[in-house]
Amino acid sequence: MKSKRVTELNAVLADWDEGKLPDGRTKFFSVAFVTKNGEFRFIKRGIRSGLRANMKKNDSKAVQPVDADGTPIDHIYPVWIHSILYYSGNVIMNLLENEE
């Protein structure tokens, strides 16, 4: 059985923000996260997207599920960055800093 790599959250966010591959094609990724109401979501193939909210202030990202051809197949999901569990097969090491 293949072991999963552990990746830090800041590396995931940097990769998520790129959006395109060096040759100009759209970057696809898989992501697993917990929604605001506690549901586990796994998106097998998605692309980055935007939201009508201040994503930086709310520590959020957005993902649009797509099919194998890159055609959207579902609505855009908001993702709180600290609820990301897996990203492209890697386990996320999420260390929340204590704000005092």
What features would you describe in this structure?
This protein has 100 residues and is mostly beta strands. Strand 2 and strand 3 form a beta hairpin. The longest helix has 10 residues. It is globular. It is built from 1 helix and 7 strands. It has a single domain, classed as SH3 type barrels (Roll). The model has no long low-confidence stretch (mean pLDDT 85). A 7-stranded mixed β-sheet has the order 1-7-6-2-3-4-5, with helices on one face.
Summary keywords:
100 residues, 10% helix, SH3 type barrels, mainly beta, 7-stranded mixed sheet, globular
Number of domains: 1
Helical proportion, percent range: 10-25%
Round the Cα radius of gyration to an integer and report it. 14 Å
Strand order of the largest sheet: 1-7-6-2-3-4-5
Task: Provide a count of the helices.
Answer: 1
> What is the beta-strand fraction?
35-45%
CATH hierarchy: architecture: Roll
The oligomeric status of these chains comes to single chain
Q: Could you tell me the mean pLDDT?
A: 85
C-alpha termini separation: 42 Å
Tell me the number of strands.
7
Text of the CATH class: Mainly Beta
Strand and helix layout:
Layout: E1 6-8, H1 9-18, E2 29-34, E3 40-49, E4 60-65, E5 77-80, E6 84-87, E7 90-93
Parallel strand pairs: 1-7
Antiparallel strand pairs: 2-3, 2-6, 3-4, 4-5, 6-7
Report a brief summary of the structure.
About 10% of the residues lie in helices and about 35% in strands. The chain is mainly beta and about 100 residues long.
